Amino acid sequence: MSHVRIVPATATHGTAPPPRPRPAPTWWVWLAAWPVTAVFVLSNAATPLYVLWQREIGFSKGTLTVVFALYIVGLLVSLLVSGVASDRLGRKAVLLPALALALIACLVFATATSVAALAVARVCTGIAVGAVVSAGMAAVTDVAGAHRKRLAALLASCAMVFGAGLGPLLAGVFAETLPGPTVTVFVVEAALLLTAAVTVLRMPLGRPARVISGRWIRVPSVPAEGRLPLLLGIATFGPGITATSFVLSLGPSLLAGLLHSSSRVLAGVTAFVMFAAATGTQFAVQRVSRRTVLTAAAVCTVAAMAALAGAMRAGSVVLLVAAALLAGAGQGMGQLAGLSLLNAAVPATRLAEANAALNVGGYVPAGLLPVAAGYLSDAAGLTTGSTIFAAVLAALALAGGVVVMATRRRIVEPG
Fold first, then answer.
1. pTM here?
2. Other Cβ atoms closer than 10 A to 404
3. Where is the stretch described as Disordered (predicted)?
4. In angstroms, how far apart are the furthest CA atoms of the chain?
5. Rounded distance, CA 33 to CA 349, Å?
6. How many other β-carbons are positioned within 10 Å of the β-carbon of residue 223?
7. From its phi and psi, is residue 154 left (phi > 0), alpha (psi between -120 and 50) or beta?
8. Which superfamily, per CATH, for 24-206+220-410?
9. What's residue 15's pLDDT?
10. What Rg value do the Cα atoms of the chain yield, rounded?
């Protein structure tokens, strides 16, 4: 009698599917957003301190907006490579050097005695932020997994705007209440960045799928299925972040002119309230259709510019605060909708590059228009410069709203 050995199917070679990785717990999805928050705290921490540096070093409003915009130059240069590098090498390989560069920026800020030092610190900050908005936001989506993409988009977007608002609030309060007004906040921020580095090292991320070919340094792009989501995101996120960038760069000067006060706490609180509006709005609209959110983002930015022009003409602090709140809401909703649509349409192997493309489209006008407004304000006065800026940006936001309305039927809602 012959003996037949029955081998279970799971033991045969080449027939068993590889085991699926266990999804990370939800608390890890939240924690994965922390490095994004920590780096964005640095992105705007200098905002309330510029009036101190202006007095100590001596430079104009035009120079101030250039120093501010150098951050965006560094960010855009970073976005040319960080998205591709993240998709090829993995999120950690991009995030850890970015955090190290952010720590260097803290050191330079804390010891700055010249415009050149401020410029170097802003460029380093921009490069770090560029890496985080591509690799960091994609890392949140990777940790969340396919079944939690909507949560991932919400947390990544909120982490960005919450950190952007927390930085100037901490800087303003520390500068008014603690010794070393231009030093203390960067010491605290360095500690936050170290905790973010530990988080990245422990983050449950798999190895990247090495399927991408082409140049390492290139203008970020998306696959064909992601082009419409990218266009819609840029059309609303771009004007929104340009509005908030203007408030960050010239907001303290506007407040000083209207209130005859250079309070660093007030400048920090204004920035924080603006980004708190961006954060709260995103949680409020997380269940709303992305078509509606995109439209509302455009409407809020147009309304913000109307309030800004009114504030300058009437000398109204109330209208200026309203402009900041509306600008924050416009950026927050445009950013959330853009990230959500990209998360749903773009495969994971191109997601960091897609995030980079969205931010390139948003930060280019955010770098150019406030600089132009700053120099125009030096030449023609702050009221005239701010009013012209508001009119131009309102027109761009309105055009973005028209694009959204024209393509409403083609927008595929995320699952």
1. 0.80
2. 25
3. 1-20
4. 104
5. 19
6. 14
7. alpha
8. MFS general substrate transporter like domains (1.20.1250.20)
9. 46
10. 22
